[in-house]
Each structure stands twice: as structure tokens, then as C-alpha cells.
């Protein structure tokens, strides 16, 4: 577990360097498109390019060009978005309920930073990979309000940037889970090289820093 603030700041720096440049260094239009995709997808249905363009008063071809330049965007047979950097409509391990609608996140960490982007409170439910007990959280746009059990922790991993680009779900998300206790998490990371544990508080802080860096214009925040 990270106990020193210096270690946490070092992790922020490392985390920001891991993601592909085209994912982190977004211009104003790209930031707006990304946030809009999250917010529309959070309504619980596939999102078309036309919807995004209309909502932002941008040309459709401009929005298409932006989206096609990013990894981590998944479409259905009608070219509508059904998955976007951490948020998904198809069923996955991590349940993410918003206003009574059930969506899913790619990993445990996604559920901690997406509520700030969609400006909605999420009720999260995710199984501990070791005990199989459910971890439940209430995450608001401002922070984590409730964690059950109280001693829950989250795993994290330091993959190479090229591995994230190659397959973010396989090489990153598949190593990030909630655990019902420090003991359960410690057992799991001992069997998964390169992983370590974070408190829920530190994991949320890390997510906020990623949001600040990626959406500094849209969120009105300064880059750390």
C-alpha cells in the first residue's frame, strides 16, 4: 500500500506517462467529444456520431476523424459506440449503476473517476477475485461516499505504454480489481507480477489527477 504522499505523486507521474499520447494530450474539441461520449453512453444506449456532433454543434466528419484516431473505442454493427475508455454497455465484471440504469466498467478504477466526467452518482458492485464477496461503493462526482466492506482495497499495475496501446483491457484492466480486504489483495498481487495495492482513497485521487490532466480545459482544472 502507498503510505507516503511522495510515492503517490510519483505514481501520478508514472500513470500519466503510461497512456498513449493521443489519449492524454487532447485539444479542446477532443476533450469535448470525449466527455460527450461518456455522458451519452451513460444514458444506457449505443451512441451515434450524429448525436455527438449535434450535441456539440460540430461537423460529423470532424467528430468521426477524432474518434477514429483513438484506441479504446468500440462499436456495434451500426457503427454506434458501445464501449469507450472504461465505460461499456455489454456486460462485464464491474457493475456500474446510474439513475437505475446498469452499465459496466472495464476495471475497478474506471468506476472511481467516470462519475466526475458524467456528473452522476454511481452505485458500483464488483466481486473480489479472491473471496468472491461483493464490494459495493457509492461514487459521486465529488468523491467516494460509501465503501462496503470498509477495508476494501484496489490493485494497480505498471504496464509498458506500448502494452496499453496494444490492448488496454488485456494488459491493464485485467489487473485492476477491488478486494474485500488487504489480506485478500496481498494474496492476489503475490501471484501477479508487477501489481500492487492502493487504498480506495488513493485510487480515487489517482483517477482525479488523470481527469485533470486529460480534461484541463473542459473541467476547468489545471494540469498537476
Strand adjacency order, main sheet: 1-2-3-5-4-6-7-8
Distance between the termini: 22 Å
Q: What is the CATH class name?
A: Alpha Beta
Could you estimate the helical fraction of the residues in percent? 40-55%
SS strand fraction: 15-25%
Q: What is the makeup of the main sheet? A: 8 strands, antiparallel
Quote the CATH topology. Beta-Lactamase
Individual helix count: 10
Poorly predicted tracts of residues: 2-6
Shape: globular
Compressed to H and E, one letter per element, the order equals HHHHHEEEEEHEEEEHHEHEH
Query: Radius of gyration from the CA trace?
Result: 17 Å
Question: What's the number of structural domains?
Answer: 1
Overall structural class, as computed from helix and strand content, comes to: alpha+beta
- The second-level CATH architecture is 2-Layer Sandwich
Q: Kindly state the mean pLDDT as a whole number?
A: 90
Quantity of strands, as a count: 11
Amino acid at each position: 500500500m502507498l503510505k507516503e504522499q511522495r510515492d503517490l505523486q510519483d505514481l501520478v507521474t508514472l500513470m500519466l506517462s503510461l497512456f498513449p499520447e493521443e489519449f492524454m494530450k487532447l485539444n479542446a474539441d477532443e476533450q469535448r467529444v470525449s466527455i460527450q461520449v461518456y455522458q451519452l453512453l451513460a444514458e444506457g444506449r449505443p451512441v451515434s456520431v450524429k448525436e455527438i456532433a449535434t450535441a456539440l454543434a460540430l461537423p460529423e466528419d470532424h467528430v468521426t476523424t477524432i474518434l477514429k484516431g483513438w484506441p479504446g473505442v468500440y462499436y456495434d454493427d451500426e457503427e454506434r459506440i458501445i464501449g469507450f475508455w472504461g465505460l461499456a454497455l455489454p456486460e462485464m465484471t464491474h457493475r456500474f449503476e446510474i439513475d437505475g440504469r446498469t452499465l459496466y466498467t472495464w476495471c475497478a478504477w474506471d468506476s472511481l473517476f467516470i462519475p466526475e466526467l458524467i456528473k452522476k452518482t454511481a452505485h458500483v458492485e464488483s466481486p473480489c477475485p479472491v473471496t468472491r464477496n461483493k464490494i459495493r461503493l457509492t461514487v459521486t462526482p465529488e468523491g467516494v461516499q460509501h465503501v462496503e466492506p470498509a477495508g476494501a482495497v484496489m490493485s494497480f499495475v505498471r504496464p509498458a505504454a506500448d502494452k496499453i496501446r496494444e490492448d488496454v483491457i488485456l494488459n491493464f484492466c485485467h489487473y485492476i480489481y477491488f478486494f474485500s480486504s488487504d489480506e485478500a489483495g496481498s494474496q492476489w498481487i503475490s501471484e501477479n507480477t508487477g501489481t500492487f495495492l492502493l487504498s480506495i482513497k488513493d485510487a480515487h485521487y489517482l483517477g482525479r489527477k488523470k481527469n485533470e490532466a486529460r480534461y484541463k480545459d473542459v473541467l476547468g482544472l489545471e494540469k498537476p
